[in-house]
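dumping this here before i forget
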Amino acid sequence: MAKKGITDTPRCLAIGSLLAFVCCLFVSASSYAEDGEFLRAGIIGCDTSHVIAFTKAFNADDSQAGVKVVVAYPGGSDDIPSSRDRVGPFTDQLREMGVEIVDSIDSLLERVDVVLLESVDGRKHLAQARLVLEAGKPVFIDKPIAASLSDAIEIFKIAEAYKTPVFSSSALRFWPSLSAVKGDDQIGEVVGCMAFSPCRLEPHHPDLFWYGIHGVEILFTMMGPDCTQVTRTTNSGADLVTGVWADGRIGTFRGIREGKLGYGAVVFGSLSNQFSSGPVGYGPLLTQISQFFKTGKPPVTPEETLAIIAFMEAAEESKRIDGQAVTLESVFTKAKAEIASGQ
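structure:
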């Protein structure tokens, strides 16, 4: 069968080569761990509190994850204050925790079996992920997977070319409460969802990529990947992004900048409606990451990850054209053109 283009409709975003890529990644942990006791993990980017939380959890004496953080590369971005001002202190904390600090990604890759790509700057992820994937090291990429849809597509293409497992996700996808709602017979089929989260902005990233992605991840967890078009209303205090799915269902994301901050969703079912809130910490995400490193099976498909990024990029375009509807197909077409032109 001929491979589908990545600019096809959202339902087809990851069929063909990307789905074949996912199916071929059922590899065992023994492929990566040399000592048979744990997988040696390396951290790229020490400018987020995640690196401390993840290392404490994985390296705890009573951890059953089978993953241990052994080395880190600080990285950092001088033009993002929350990166520039935190990379030093977090690097020092990792060093105090017994993690070796190296001065290059190449040096890190020589010492590890798997990688946690934690740089807060999504603009750096394509170049950093390329080195990791070409080295054949399975990698979890913290949100956002990239700062553009074209970069996200390129990451999956590189992963496919080198047959190296990769996935990206917000921790919120794995809330036990969301899983319980989605599988609750008393709710029935999910006919809609209204998700919300804080939505702080960062000038070097499209608006929702920086923090709104958490709530968008909740929305897609409940609704699935087949969103076809997006409209956005925005002001200084909030965003309201409405998506229409291929089967006609409607889902919304509210990004909060003023007022009470929080994370959650109202899930509308065929039988009843339910409110779900959180979060509950990083434990469920870390369980998924460790299982991914051991099996090579991503818990989130490329199709859904790309649909999330396309949704947020379509929201950015809708803002630019005063709230008009933007199709996900159109942003995929634009991303393909950017890749072809080398932009």
